[in-house]
Design brief:
This protein is an all-alpha fold. It is 57% helix and 1% strand. It starts with a helix and ends in an 11-residue tail after the last helix. Bound molecules: zinc ion. This is Chromosome X open reading frame 38.
C-alpha cells in the first residue's frame, strides 16, 4: 500500500511534534478570542470614561495627514495626538516598537479594535477583530496593554515558544521542547482561572501534547474522522488543515520580515528554498499555498532588482 504524503510526514516524530505544537497555538487562539474581544471593549470604555473628550464626538481633523506608517506616527490633529498619548500611557512597550501602521487613528474614538491593534505586532492593518487574529497577535496585546493584569513573564514565555515554532526552518521540534512548551502554556493558562472557556481548553491541550496523537486515516467507507472517547484522533483532513494554517503563518512571517528588510535577502532566500524543498515532496500542501509562495517570490525578485540597481548599497541592518 502506498502511504499518503501525510502519513509519510507524520512518520517523522519531530515533524509530528511541530504540528502538535501548532495545533496548541490554534487551540490557544480559539480560547482567547472571546475573552480578548470582551476585554478590548471594556478597555475602550474605561479610556473614554477617563477622557470623555476622546469619545465618539471627537473627530480627526488631519485627514490623510494623520496616517501612520509602520512604526511612525506624527499626529496632525489634536484628537489623534491625545489618543496617541493615551495609548502610549497604557503601553508596556512604550519606549520600544509600536506598530502604529496597524491602526486607522480616525476610528479610535469609535472602534475599540483599532485601538487594540496599536498593542500588536506589525502586519495586522486589515484585521477587523480577534476572530481574524492569530495567537501571537492576541498574546502580544495581552502582554503590551496594561489593561490585562497578568504575570507578563508567562505571556512572553509562550510568545517565545510560538516564535521558535514559526522560525524552525525544518519545521521540527523535539519531544523535550514540546514538554517544556506544555509547561509554559499551563503556567500561562493558570493566570485565567476565572475564565471558564480558557480553563476548559487546558485539558484538551494537555491531552493533545501527552498523547501519541494517532492520526486516523479512514478506510474507504469511513469518510470522516472518528471521534474517539479520548478526542485525540484527528482525520487526515483535520491534520491537513492545521498544517496549512501553520505554513501560511510561517510564510506570512517570512514575508513581513523580508518586506521590512529585517533579514538579509540571502537569509530570506535560504528560508524560501527550505520551504520550497519541503513542498516539492508534499504536493498535497503545495497546492494550497501557491498564492503565498508567489507573493514571496515576487517580493524576493523585487528586492533582487533593487539590489542589482544599487551595487555596493548598504545592507539592511539586522534587528534583534
Ligand atoms: Zn487626526
Amino acid at each position: 500500500m502506498v502511504l499518503s504524503e501525510l502519513a509519510v510526514r507524520l512518520n517523522c516524530p519531530e515533524y509530528k511534534n511541530w504540528v502538535k505544537a501548532g495545533h496548541c497555538l490554534l487551540l490557544l487562539r480559539g480560547c482567547l478570542q472571546g475573552f480578548v474581544g470582551r476585554e478590548v471593549l471594556a478597555f475602550h470604555r474605561d479610556l473614554l470614561a477617563a477622557a470623555p473628550g476622546l469619545g465618539p464626538r471627537a473627530f480627526c481633523r488631519g485627514g490623510w495627514r494623520c496616517s501612520p506608517r509602520a512604526r511612525q506616527f506624527q499626529p496632525q490633529c489634536q484628537v489623534c495626538a491625545e489618543w496617541k498619548r493615551e495609548i502610549l500611557s497604557h503601553h508596556t512597550n512604550r519606549n520600544g516598537d509600536v506598530h502604529w501602521g496597524n491602526c486607522r487613528p480616525g476610528l479610535w474614538p469609535v472602534d475599540a479594535w483599532e485601538v487594540a491593534k496599536a498593542f500588536m505586532p506589525r502586519g495586522l492593518a486589515d484585521k477587523r477583530g480577534p476572530e481574524e487574529c492569530d495567537a501571537v497577535a492576541l498574546l502580544s496585546l495581552i502582554n503590551c496593554c496594561d489593561h490585562f493584569m497578568i504575570d507578563r513573564k508567562k505571556v512572553t514565555e509562550v510568545i517565545k515558544c510560538r516564535n521558535e515554532i514559526m522560525h524552525s526552518s525544518e519545521m521540527k521540534v523535539s519531544s523535550m521542547w514540546l514538554r517544556d512548551f506544555q509547561m509554559k502554556i499551563q503556567n500561562f493558562l493558570n493566570e485565567f482561572r476565572n475564565i471558564p472557556e480558557i480553563v476548559a481548553v487546558y485539558s484538551r491541550i494537555e491531552q493533545l501534547l501527552t498523547s501519541d496523537w494517532a492520526v486516523h486515516i479512514p478506510e474507504e467507507d469511513q469518510r470522516d474522522g472518528c471521534e474517539c472517547e479520548t478526542g485525540i484522533y484527528l482525520s487526515e483532513s483535520q491534520v491537513n488543515e492545521i498544517e496549512m494554517e501553520l505554513l501560511k503563518e510561517k510564510l506570512q512571517e517570512i514575508y513581513l520580515q523580508a518586506e521590512e528588510q529585517e533579514v538579509l535577502p540571502e537569509e530570506t532566500s535560504t528560508r524560501l528554498e527550505m520551504v520550497k524543498e519541503f513542498l516539492r515532496h508534499n504536493e498535497d500542501l503545495r497546492k494550497g499555498l501557491t498564492e503565498e509562495m508567489q507573493k514571496l517570490d515576487s517580493l524576493y525578485l523585487q528586492h533582487q532588482k533593487q539590489d542589482s540597481k544599487e551595487p555596493g548599497g548598504e545592507m539592511p541592518e539586522e534587528r534583534a
